[in-house]
Amino acid sequence: MRHVAIEEGFDAWRDAARQLLSEGVPPDQVFWYSATEHALFSSSEATPAMSGGTLFSITGEPAIATAASTSAVLHPRVRVPAAFVDLAKTVICHRDQLKWPTLYRAIWRVTHGEHDLLKNAVDEVTRALAIMEKAVRRDCHKMTAFVRFKKLVTGDGREQFVAWHRPDHLIVRRMASFFVDRFRSMDWAILTPDTSVAWENGELQFGPGVPTDPLLGDVVEDLWTTYYANIFNPARIKLKAMQAEMPRKHWPTLPETRLIPQMLKDAPARVQKMLDAAPKVPVMLDYVPKTSSLRVLHEAAEKCRACDIGCHATQVVFGEGPKTARVMFVGEQPGDQEDLAGKPFVGPSGALLNEVLDQIGIDRSQVYVTNAVKHFKFEPRGKRRIHAKPNAREMAACKPWLLAELDIVKPDILVLLGATAAQTLVGRQFRITQSRGQWFKSDWSEKTIATFHPSAILRSIDAESMEKNKSLFTDDLRKVARQLAAA
Ligand code: URA
Predict the structure, then answer these.
(1) Which of 132, 197, 320, 416 could form a disulfide with 450 if both were Cys (CB 3.0 to 4.6 A apart)?
(2) Contacts of 455 (CB under 8 A, 6+ apart)
């Protein structure tokens, strides 16, 4: 039996797994345990005797140094699907120590004839990993939602923002880059019972955990509770969902929870008030600057995290074209190629749009092309990223960017490509099948027209309907060209 004392983190597990695989040690011959816990409860000299077998310790630097001397044996080329590595990096954040043997069991099978193990969703090991992965992802999401910074002023007058949070899993290192991206310009620290992380003067540092919230009851809470009271939407109260989304264990660090009973009482009156006021633009954090520069707008959008899509995409894909453009085209959201290029409509849909614009004599460089949603939403499938439709909340979160673009460009003619664009700007009742190709007046242009989205044409069920849809699309855009020439 091999006894593996292992540190937390993907690298430690990967090194240990590589070594075990290179020696052909089957999963049922390995006993995994936490090096940190072991160090707490026993002295290192006692370890070999207590373990009753070979002590095989993978504990950071010293082990790596040993590994380097026999690298041919210790670093065999183990080929596993990329999806396995992604999965392992997530699962390794799970608190349950069963993650180590379960991952090793999986990699053993993947490298011993079951290359597609992860595709078998009903396999016991695959299912166990999927459950752990889901729990970690959910915990990461909760951390993005429930970390509340309190402002402290240091002796030399500098401002620091500190939060205490209690995640279920070991996700602090994984999540650090999210907070760096979001709060790059301030000094902050997030303390958790396991680990702490601080961002100071542009440097990230990790330190020991802090078991309880040292700052309970700071003044900044007042600001937060006021903010929460203002955004709390009484028309959408779902108590069960609220408790599920905001588990009680997070309540002590969420100052706003103290407001909930009173707000629930006030809810009916507030619903009526909200209906009366009926704001046109959904409440969102103040990401959109007041500017008449498309460049400034674009730069600000790079930092937008009003919804989660931006956390997974490569970059924002903002609108493109001259500020003086007379025609604006609005699509749905960037696709895979747009996400990589950072430009709208450069993939297959863009090729079709370009072809038709050429045919009807509209110069693409003279029009403004943008999307209702500015980040690529996708679902990973192995190495591929499959387009996923943005939901109503994501469309609403991104809408202020589109409105700001419309406000700057003020197009004479507005062309809505597909239902997402049309529903974002005209209303959820809009149907392309009913209103395609008809001019109407919208809030943004006297001359607004909706037509097919090029990707819908490319997805037509057969060649014949593709030809037909393409010809209707061309007819619609020809109307645009005529209108442009006439005005
Ligand atoms: N589909 C869109 O809606 N927009 C793009 O930029 C590309 C594909």
Answers:
(1) 416
(2) 332, 335, 348, 349, 418
Helix (H) or strand (E) run with residue 5 in it: strand 2-6
User: How many other CB atoms sit within 10 Å of the CB of residue 197?
Assistant: 19
Q: Quick: pLDDT tens for 379-408.
A: 888 878 999 999 888 898 899 999 999 999
pLDDT at res. 57: 31
Distance from the alpha carbon of residue 335 to the mean position of ligand 1, in angstroms = 5
Query: Domain limits of the chain?
Result: 2-136, 147-208, 225-277, 285-486
Which residues approach ligand 1 with their CB closer than 6 A? 331-335, 338, 344-345, 347, 349, 371, 455
Burial letters 461-485, b for 16+ CB under 10 A, else e? eeeeeeeebbeebbebbebbbebbe
Residue 321 CA: distances (Å) to CA of 284, 292, 370, 422, 440: 26, 15, 9, 20, 24
Q: What is the pLDDT of residues 332-376, one digit of tens each?
A: 999 999 999 999 999 999 999 999 999 999 999 999 999 999 999
pTM of this structure: 0.47
**C-alpha 467 – ligand 1 centre gap (Å):** 20
